[in-house]
Amino acid sequence: MVHSMTAFARQEHAAAWGSLQLELRSVNQRYLEPHFRLPESLRDLEPTFRETLRTRLARGKVEVSLRFEASGDSAGLAVNRARLTELARALGEVRQAVEEATPPDALALLDYPGVLENRGPDTATVKEAAMALFERALDDLIAGRAREGDKLAELIGDRLAGIEAQVAEVRTLMPQILERQRAQLLERLEEVASGLDPQRLEAELTLLANKADVDEELDRLATHVAEVRRQLDQKGPVGRRLDFLMQELNREANTLSSKSVVAESTRCAVELKVLIEQMREQIQNIE
Fold it and tell me: Residues 160, 245: one domain?
């Protein structure tokens, strides 16, 4: 089963302390390339996210976007009354000991460490929720990549069937092609060199027939097609292997084209190249 590198997933979580929204987006890339946009308060989750991606994905440019919004009840600042009471008691003692001491204003009191607190949700709770959200989104992303991979495999399978049809047609045409070529060559030679040694002429015709014989190319095309199908059924990343097989298929198609001596085989070679190029474009997006 092949996986596409293109997919999108979104997960949300709401609680009394606020809400989290996480989006994962992946596109094709030769290697795994993650990018993160995280709130500053949750920035230290990045190494964990990165390692999790590395263990579950092999290729693709993956964008991770996490947003956090604290609820109105949990956001804002709060005065620590106990701390403020302790500070007021200490200031009273100072005034008793030093009568001319200037009492601090309200802002100065708030600026004293521990008096003003950032009232918000427990950071550990938010991080735990963010990790669970990330795992769910990643599951969805991988499932989406698998669904897209199934579609790609189906499209590639159609092109493979097209290649097999072209190979079968060339095999059917080859006896006629070689015979036609032999007859045409004989006619031309009779016009310009009727005195040629018959044995020499037969040897030249045999050599030409061997050069035009494409049985090996057709056999290798069939072998590569079978290997592409086998790779499509494998588990794990197969994109690089499939890309190599496209190069091999294209090489055989080029050789077939160079050996073409009539319009029918030339047309088949051109159609093979079109099918291979279509597969190559689709394979660029396979993990």
Answer: yes
Angle 277-279-285 from CA coordinates, rounded to 5° = 115
pTM beyond 0.85, yes or no: no
Expressed as residue numbers, the domain containing 83 is 77-118
Establish if 6 belongs to a structural domain.
no
199, 102: one domain? no
Q: Summarize pLDDT for 147-205 with one digit per residue, the tens.
A: 999 999 999 999 999 999 999 998 888 887 777 777 766 776 666 555 566 666 666 66
Tell me whether strands 116-118 and 18-27 are parallel, antiparallel or unpaired: unpaired
Tens digit of pLDDT for each residue in 89-102?
888 887 788 877 78
**What is the distance between the terminal CA atoms of the chain, rounded to a whole angstrom?**
11
Position 140 in a domain: no
- Rounded Cα–Cα distance for residues 171 and 159 (Å): 18
Domain total for the chain? 2
DSSP 195: T
